[in-house]
Amino acid sequence: MSKEDGLAFVIAGAISWFAVTAFYGAFGGALLESSFWFYVLNAGLATGALLVAFCFTARLRRISRHRRFFPALAFFLPGLIGGLLAISNMDGLLPQLEAGSHGRYAGFMLAAYVAVIILSLDHPVRARS
């Protein structure tokens, strides 16, 4: 992975994290946390959005499927740092959310980034007989 590739994945990861966090901030208190299944549905949609953003960036940068682990870490890093900062400042950042929203937001983001890492792992190819 070149420096330009790394920078592209960091920027794409930061934009994706900001979009998902802004969505959670706008709709988290009233809509997402109203019922468990609606929360799970939206966590799945956010995970899908992050996966699409990661795969789109990988295709634009022409990264093969066997070399996507380090780009996934570069994509994951801004979200990890931003997520930790958002959780530590949740009351000031998103005052409309309840106190229990810290854990739900962390779970929301964790599910998405674990899926990105799993997608990037090198899957062994079976030998054809």
Description of the structure:
With 129 residues, the chain is mainly α. It has one domain (3-120). Helices cover 77% and strands 0% of the residues. It has 5 helices and no strands. It has helices at residues 3-32, 36-60, 69-88, 90-93, 101-120. Helix 1 (3-32) runs antiparallel to helix 2, helix 1 (3-32) crosses helix 3 (69-88) and helix 2 (36-60) packs parallel to helix 5 (101-120). The N and C termini lie far apart (33 Å). The relative contact order is 0.19. The mean pLDDT is 80.
Summarize the structure.
Helix content is 77%, strand content 0%. With 129 residues, it is an all-alpha fold.
Order of helices and strands: HHHHH
Number of helices: 5
Largest sheet: none
- Strands, count: 0
Structural class: mainly alpha
- Shape label: globular
Identify low-pLDDT runs: none
Instruction: Tell me the β content.
Output: under 5%
Which whole number gives the mean pLDDT? 80
Distance between the termini: 33 Å
Q: Report Rg.
A: 16 Å
Number of domains as seen in the coordinates = 1
Fraction in helix:
over 70%
Main features:
single chain; 129 residues; mainly alpha; 0% strand
Any chance you could write out the topology, listing elements then pairs?
Blueprint: H1 3-32, H2 36-60, H3 69-88, H4 90-93, H5 101-120
